[in-house]
Specification:
By secondary structure, this protein is α+β, with helices and mostly antiparallel strands. Strands 3, 4, 5, 6, 7, 8, 9, 10, 11, 12, 13, 14, 15 and 16 form a 14-stranded antiparallel beta sheet that branches. A two-stranded antiparallel sheet has the order 1-2. Helices cover about 35% and strands about 30% of the residues. The chain starts with a helix and ends with a strand. The protein has three domains: about 5-180, no CATH class; about 280-335, no CATH class; about 355-605, Porin.
Length: about 600
């Protein structure tokens, strides 16, 4: 390619020749100026590029043109121009690409738009200037060269460089936009990756915390299980130690009793030997009886002591209540035999005291009981101020049987002797021993009773029989305040009896049941509050006293309170001999004195 200087020379020569020949200068393309070229002082038309320049660039020959005499340049000018044309064009300094910075100064949008429009719009053809203007420009260029300002070629090159810089700047602006977009995309991608990394780290931390909490929870549960197991093991060991201690104490106690018995037997043998040596043949028979009697007394005392200890054990107490001691059952009950003689039999020990017996009959044990009763009742007469007294005698019969270890069933019937027309009441009961210990005995009992009454009709002169039914519920409870004194409610191991269901008067204690519910024929429904005190005077003598503190009306009766309305009191005593209990009971309403009382004798026998 030809340099810009050569094209300028060619253009000047061509223009001169064309004007000399009388032709019109060819249209030239207006060079595009960049936004920065607007500030240049050199006229942009001065360096317009013609068609000849384009042909020179393309390698085509220029058409020969004639010069006029006036317009022909001087020899010096031609030589200077030839030298300029021969001289190599100055090398343009390569532009140094600006280093990429984080913040790039982008060109103004107006400059970029103007540069794009200049690049896109076609170059318009402009008419040639008059030759005079061209000569003036050449003169101006020479003056500029003489002044050291620079040739027009250099200005054109500078302008073209500025244009190139503007275009490069525009292109660089667009490139920087893309780079900025790429950088933004990279930053967003980096931020997304950082965010994902943070999320992953948070998830891992959360999983670590969950694993740590799970491990802590499992450790805590394991610790609780270990503590529970240790506690259970400790309780089991303590229980075993306690049981072992009780067994050892029991064995030691039995061993001490055996040693004491052996010592007493040895002493009795020594006494017998001394008696044999000193006494006569007739007197020799007395010591064995004495020894046997003494031994029997000791055995009785030992049995009583053992029975008191067995109260702490329910099973032992049950067995002691059914046990019948004899010489065959307990060899120690008899004294040591006389040499060469048979020992005398010893009477069986007495049954256990009533205060120590269970509230229900022992398992598979049958007992029968009965009594003869005398009752006096005074009621207001038909006329005001009059009273009617009646006396009746009745025979009471009953039976009870132990079922299992703690339950009993039974039936009772009262048969009237005087007047003989009275029949009943009839009752069936069931009881269950809920607790039996050295201090407290509790049993739950229920009774279904029927009573029969004859009513005379004065008009028809006939009598009709009315039957009443009642359900009675109660608790038999006994608390031993001392080994001999107890407080009870209900039946304290005494024989049961049927209770009258008559509404004419309030029943007298002792009461076996606290709640009475009338089932038909306007039967009374009420609550009783009986409390009694028992005293074991001796192992075979038992006494008691019972008070009814209140009779609370629920239906078909009246409410009565102790001291205000009545004072129902019952006193009784029982004597025990072997399997037989004999007793007497007196019940009276102290408020009425002798007008309302009941006296009866009671007998109970254990069949087996």
């Amino acid at each position: 390619m030809f340099s810009t200087g050569r094209r300028r020379i060619a253009w000047l020569l061509a223009s001169t020749l064309l004007v000399a020949c009388g032709g019109t200068p060819a249209k030239v393309e207006e060079p595009r100026a960049s936004a920065s070229a607007k500030d240049d002082e050199v006229d942009p038309d001065e360096f317009a590029i013609t068609d000849e320049d384009d042909r020179e660039v393309a390698g085509e020959e220029e058409p020969a043109e004639e010069k006029t005499a006036d317009e022909e340049p001087s020899a010096d000018e031609v030589v200077a121009e030839a030298e300029e044309a021969a001289a190599p064009p100055p090398k343009a300094k390569p532009k140094k690409q600006a280093k990429k910075q984080k913040k790039v100064v982008e060109p103004e949008p107006e400059e970029v738009a103007a540069a794009d429009e200049e690049e896109d719009e076609p170059v318009e053809e402009r008419p040639a200037k008059p030759e005079r203007e061209r000569v003036n420009r050449r003169s101006q260029n020479r003056r500029r060269e003489e002044a050291g300002i620079g040739s027009g070629r250099e200005d054109r090159e500078a302008r073209m460089a500025r244009d190139e810089r503007a275009r490069a700047k525009a292109r660089g602006g667009r490139g920087r936009e893309e780079e900025d977009a790429e950088e933004r995309a990279e930053r967003e991608e980096a931020e997304a990756e950082a965010k994902a990394a943070r999320a992953e780290k948070a998830r891992e931390a959360k999983q670590a915390r969950a694993a740590k909490a799970r491990a802590a929870k499992e450790a805590k549960a394991e610790k609780l299980r270990a503590a529970k197991a240790a506690k259970a093991e400790k309780l089991r060991a303590a229980k075993e130690a306690k049981a072992e201690k009780l067994r050892a104490a029991k064995e030691a106690k039995a061993e001490n009793a055996r040693k004491a018995q052996e010592a007493r037997a040895a002493k009795a043998n020594e006494d017998e030997d001394v008696a044999d040596e000193e006494d006569t043949e007739d007197e020799d028979e007395a010591p064995p009886k004495k020894v046997a009697k003494a031994s029997k007394k000791e055995v009785d005392e030992n049995l009583i002591e053992m029975e008191g200890d067995d109260e702490e054990d329910e099973e032992d107490d049950e067995e002691s209540s059914t046990r019948v001691a004899s010489v065959e059952d307990d060899p120690l009950a008899a004294g040591p035999p006389v040499r060469d003689e048979e020992p005398e039999p010893v009477a069986a020990p007495k049954a256990s005291p009533i205060n120590d017996r269970p509230l229900t009959v022992a398992a598979k044990q049958l007992e029968v009981h009965g009594g003869l009763g005398l009752q006096t009742l005074t009621l207001p007469g038909a006329m005001a101020g009059t009273t009617v007294s009646s006396t009746s005698e009745a025979l009471a019969l009953g039976v009870a049987y132990g079922i299992g270890k703690n339950a009993e069933v039974g039936a009772d019937y009262r048969l009237s002797i005087n007047p003989g027309t009275v029949k009943g009441p009839l009752a069936f009961h069931v009881a269950y021993a809920a607790k039996h210990s050295a201090k407290i005995d509790v049993a739950i009992a229920a009774n279904l009773g029927f009573d029969f009454f004859e009513t005379a009709n004065a008009v028809t002169m006939t009598t009709t029989t009315t039957t009443k039914a009642s359900l009675q519920l109660g608790a038999w409870a006994r608390y031993r305040a001392t080994p001999k004194v107890s407080i009870f409610t209900g039946l304290p191991a005494l024989p049961s009896a049927a209770t009258s269901l008559s509404n004419q008067s309030l029943a007298l204690p002792p009461f076996g049941y606290q709640v009475q519910i009338g089932l038909n024929n306007a039967g009374a429904t009420a609550i009783e509050v009986p409390i009694g005190i028992g005293l074991q005077v001796k192992p075979n003598i038992y006494a008691f006293a019972s008070l009814d503190f209140a009779h609370i009306r629920l239906a078909n009766t009246q409410t009565a309170l102790i001291f205000a309305d009545f004072i129902p009191l019952a006193l009784g005593a029982f004597y025990t001999h072997d399997k037989l209990d004999i007793g007497v009971q007196l019940a009276d309403d102290l408020k009425q004195g002798a007008d309302y009382l009941r006296l009866e004798t009671v007998l109970r026998y254990s069949v087996k």
